[in-house]
Queue: 4 jobs
Job 1
Amino acid sequence: MDKLRAIQLFVRLAELGSFTRVAEQTNTSKSMISKEISRLEDALGARLLHRSTRNVQLTHLGEGYLQRAREILEKIDDADNFVQDLQHHPRGKLKINAPMALGITDLSALFADFMRAYPDIELDIHLGDENVDLVEQGFDLGFRASSRPIDSGYVGRPLTHFKYCVCVGPEYFNSHPAITSPQDLEDHNCFVYSYFQGKNIWPIEDGVAVQGNLRVNSTIFMMEAIKQGQGIGFIPDFVCREAIENGEVIEVLKESKKPSLTLYALYPARHFVPSKLVQCIEYLEKWFADKH
């Protein structure tokens, strides 16, 4: 038995949860993968997986083995990358988690540039606004935009800052009064972003309670409703910048005090940081520095 190969298949199976998907990605048969996993279990003298016709679940021992197997593969990958770095050709796979709106706007341009600079690094990017455990989900790197300090078990590297804008479509004021102070928002149709930490309290000046007929987990979706004159949004500038410049929406309360957003690059704290990840973070810091 090729134990390293078996460990690699086990880790991939745990991440994908399907023999079929692993077989498709590795261009091998399900039966071969099943035999490799069975040989690994026999060698360990323990069952790592509960198999069913629909899915695969880890046993308690399998969960502990998975964590340690990932660490082994990361160290092997780091050793390989050490040699590759000496030849100035970093390669390998980076699994990245990023907020949906930020990924579609600023980060899409960033990683297009990164791929040109490092064509041998394979990017596996997952966009979503829900809070995920980077280690549990197997991510090498995550992005978080927050107005508060990041309190986590990760290493956080600040990359850049964004601001919030209060946005409204021009047509909205055809049937609603003007907004001259934050308190005026209490009488307007204000949309709520589901994952916003302040819930329905917008942090403008001393804070203002808002309400409206739309709650949504996507600021990009929200922007379309704002453009149509349906309501008002408290939007990060990386989402609304272009719409404001094009006159599709108007920014109100420009002079009112609002918090800034800091974009952090997060990665799991560990003794051996893969060199491809170091290269990526250094590139991110330089990319954002050059933009300002």
Note: The CA atoms of residues 156 and 266 lie 5 Å apart.
Job 2
Amino acid sequence: MTRTPDRARRAVAGVVVAVLALLAVALRRARERARDVPLSPITAGWHVGPEFVERAGLATGDEPLGEIDDVAQFAGEAFDPDRLDPEIRRFYERTGEYGMRYRARWHRPFRTGAALASLLTSRIEQLNLPGPGDESWHRLESRFLDIAEPGAVAVGADPTEPAREDVRSWVRTDPKTGEAVFVALYATHHRDGEGFVNIAVPIPGGGVDTVLRPENLALGGEREGGTGIRLTTDPPGDPGLYLRTPAGAFAVPGGQRFEVWPAADGDDGRLRATHEMWLLGRTFLTVEYEIERA
């Protein structure tokens, strides 16, 4: 006579094996997805903070004016830099001349996890956003430093493959506390004539990296015919969200989207922006920015 407990144990074991097999396949695909993308080799220890670049010996001594010298480096099939609104172009090329403030909104069901994570990020001083419940406006101060980054090419690729170019750090701090909010290493890379924004965020033992495709964002009203900018991890190709770990780099089942456009009241040096992040198809964070030329 067949014993029911044995049959149940075999069924449970079968399910566990199937789940583990699916996870192994997913991890292999995530690693293969990241293999072809040039990612930064720079990692951090248990504290990042506003002096990370100097402490890590990465600074060359040059201080760029903005995120990129010329937005023409972003040119591609989806982005024509000549159509970009002049104020937005100026912001990207002379970012340090703008004041910024932001507010963050964490979405359910991620709020509990975000509250726990904020206890860690505030100590590390990286990705140091306010936790759930604080949707007030916070000011940011920006500082740019040119970076001497070891060559970052796709794993196993030859030197002719795409690499991170014109690397610079954008250190954003809270002027009230002096703490780092966001320490990121910005670069571009090119593939098949298309330019991508390639952002590395060093974390303990690895990094959270994002590759974004620039797109023209149509404007209406008095600015009809001009464009803002959208930066998105949407496929196809290199864009995506990647996690670098001691075990290697993996594509993450999530993404980001930035949109920047002029404020509604005209050419007064003011811009608006939003930053959305999602995981497994669910938006977990929205950050709004108000930007004003100093």
Note: The chain is about 20% helix and 35% strand.
Job 3
Amino acid sequence: MKKELTYALITPYSLLKSRTGGIISRLLSLSDLELVGARMYTPSDKFLDEYCETIKGQRIGPLWKRTLLDYVNDKLRKKNKLGISNRTMLLLFEGNDAINILHNKVIGPASEHLRGNTIRGTYGDCIKSAGKIEYFEPAVLTSADKATNINQLKLFAKYALSDGGILENVMDFGINKKPETSLIILKPFEKHDPRSGNIIDMIARTGFYMVGIKLLDLSTKQAEEFYGPVKDFFNSSFDDKFKPQLVEKLKTALNKQDFPFDLNDAILNKLADQLKEPTVEGEFGNILQYMTGSEPSAFAETKKTEDGKHTICLAILYQGINTIKTIRELLGATDPKKAKYSSIRRFYGLDILRNAVHASDSPESVIRERKIIGLYKDENTCDIKQIINRYLKNCGSSRRR
């Protein structure tokens, strides 16, 4: 069976109510589909006009077709009845029978019969009275059939640059309030791991707004540049951070050997100094390998994965007042064992290397890191557009055959 590409669009109301983490956890863990792309959108009226035309051709009952059209027109436009920002989050999923699985089994079809086994049953609402839908919040929008899916994916690709990307100028913080943007990266997780959504849910405690998102498949070259300051720190802190442990390891290993001299501390310290460079390179290499899933020896543009396991990183931009300090405090100490019990790293981190989340430590670091991973400004293209166009091209090739 040929793999299908489809989407889940988290609605503005779900984003505002901080339901995003729970929704993402469900999307990742309730199917065998693979998350392959993520992007924020503030859909324009032109986009939504065309989107409504695709709904009119969708294979669903007339009542729900009308309900979805009313929802899009009332709640998704920049000037909407809720009076909120029309931020949405697009997530692309790929897999066998993806359209049917995502729409019917994971998200759930548009219906007044809501149950907790679907995303809409848990995070959506519907009130029906006398054959009329009085209130409807779907939580997530998606396609109900293959033809509609193709048409809607075309729209997301068409408007990816004009209506999507970094949304730092859409939220209103009031007069004399100066918001800042913080970058976090959810460190490598397997494609069906719901913990990434759980972490997002914990960050929602801050009340900060998600204004950018991107799925990262870091090359070793990117990781080397991104973590360059860490390597500098390893070099400058070698005597305190690595040397004492290295001396002890040397003492344990070499004391078993028969030398014609006393293996005193002076000699061991000199040996440790000689091993400074390979020690730092080894520790730095561990970071590169963990963040990319590739061997650190060849600084290639693309990464390799082991045994078919696909690990990904998710980069998210949060905007608010004092975001950088607040989020770093919520994450907790770099070493999860030393982090507070209420912190994210205490819950989800394993050790200093695998401590669940990276967060930029200053406004300057935010800018530097965003540029490296391609989550900054002035895009000429984007991964979402490329992924969709590649899929549409393959679909066209299949039909011609």
Note: The mean pLDDT is 89.
Job 4
Amino acid sequence: METTLIPILDNDLAPRFDLASDVLIVSVTRETSAMGKIDEKVVVLDTPSPEAMCRLALAENIQTVICAGIEKEFFDFLEWKGIRVLDDICGPVDAILEAHFMGKISPGQSYY
């Protein structure tokens, strides 16, 4: 199962990892090479903070974080914990998820 965390603001990727109060968690369970089951849930943090976001990522067994801006300290922490961080990305969540699941996403891309 692949689990991805995306800080969101309305239907877009939030501009900052540490200021987002809403987080989309998407889990994909591969049943065959071409098909999979997708589960999505939105988590609302009481108080936005990078520490709360990192705790959530660890608690939810996240493999990938997709975000726009993130401080180096938290980028390095997540990577140290084995979580892949794709940063400097912007756009609507649906377009970003589509690119991610197709393997066509990389840091520095805009999907507007």
Note: Strands lie at 2-9, 12-13, 22-30, 36-44, 64-66, 84-86.
